[in-house]
Structures are given as structure tokens and as C-alpha cells.
Amino acid sequence: MQRELTQGQRTAIDLGPLVVFFAVNYFYGIMAGTAALMAATMIVIGITYTVERSVPPMPAITCVFVMIFGGLTLYFDNELFIKLKPTIVNLLFAAALTSGILLRRNLMKIMLGRVMRLTDEGWLLMTKRWIGMFVMLAVVNEAIWRSVDTDTWVSFKAFGIPVLVIIFSIIFIMPVVQKHQITDGTGD
């Protein structure tokens, strides 16, 4: 029997690897923190698959990049790779969403269309805002890792980025959803 994770469970699962990364980095350093991040990410994917019998695209893609950049970090014993991962992943997400718009295939609608119904204008506006958010997160990550020590960057990665995303969602996404949500069974 297939179940779905509750929103609270999904939030805990999404944030779990970051908290593990922060804690292990604090006590044992960035290399151990990176290995712990990789392990925690795989555990989260396993839990999600066990409960839901599928893994949503965003966590699956993130997992692949954690494994690639974490593996490079550990193999070369160079923290640069794990610090670049958020920049590269965010820019790739922005590029994918932009490509979808250019090809007239709204990827946000494809990924989230089962859980929310918006007008086409709403999907386009939300997608453009997420593109901006992903680019902004890439720029902020670059500025932070290049200007502070590793422990401060890890703290920002574990706690600052989620807070920025929550604030962004409240200020820029919720109004779009409220204005463009289709609730009466009609719309485009």
C-alpha cells in the first residue's frame, strides 16, 4: 500500500541531511560532514521511496548532485567541490526552468500540476520567480563561500538558505498561488 509523507515529515526529511551536515562538520570538519551529508541524503531517498514507492524529481536530482560533488570533495580532499554544488545546482535548475519556458513546456506545471492547479499565467509567473530565486541563491552562495570561513559557509548552507527560501515563498510565491489558483474546476 502506497502512502504519502505528511508535510511535516517531508520538511524533516528535506532538512535532515543539512542538519546532519552542519552537526558533523561542527564536530569533525568538512570532509566528515560531506560524507555524512552523502549518507544522510541516501537514507532520505531510501525512506521516501519506502514510504511513497517513488522519489520526487527535485530530491532525486539533488541526491545525484550531492553524490557527484560530495564524491569529488572526498576523492580530491578539496572542499571547493561541495561549496560549488549549490551554485551549480541552482544555476542548472534556473536553466532547466528557462528552457522549459522557451520550449513552451512549463516544468513547474509538469512537476507540481498534480498537487496544485493554477492558471497558465500563474504557472508562468511562478516559474519566472523561481528562476530569479535560483539565480539569486547561486550568486549569494558564491559571495558567501568566497568571503567567509568554511564553518560559517556550512552554517549559511544549513540554515540561511532554507530561511531565504521560506521568506521567498511567503513573499513571492504565495501571492501568485492565491491569485491564480483554480478552485472551481474551470480555467485553462
Q: What oligomerization state is this entry in?
A: single chain
- Strand count, sense and closure of the main sheet? none
Global morphology: globular
**Structural class by secondary-structure content:** mainly alpha
Distance between the amino and carboxyl termini: 33 Å
Mean pLDDT: 91
Total number of domains:
2
Spans where pLDDT lies below 50 across 5 or more residues? none
The number of distinct helices, counting runs of at least 4 residues, comes to 7
Chart the SSEs and their pairings.
Blueprint lengths: L6 H22 L1 H23 L4 H20 L3 H23 L4 H6 L7 H28 L2 H31 L8
How would you characterize the overall build of this protein?
There is one protein chain. The protein is built from seven helices and no strands. The two termini are 33 Å apart. The chain is globular. The protein is an all-alpha fold and 188 residues long. The longest helix has 31 residues, at 150-180. The mean pLDDT is 91. The protein has helices at residues 7-28, 30-52, 57-76, 80-102, 107-112, 120-147, 150-180. The protein has two domains: 1-76, no CATH class; 79-188, no CATH class.
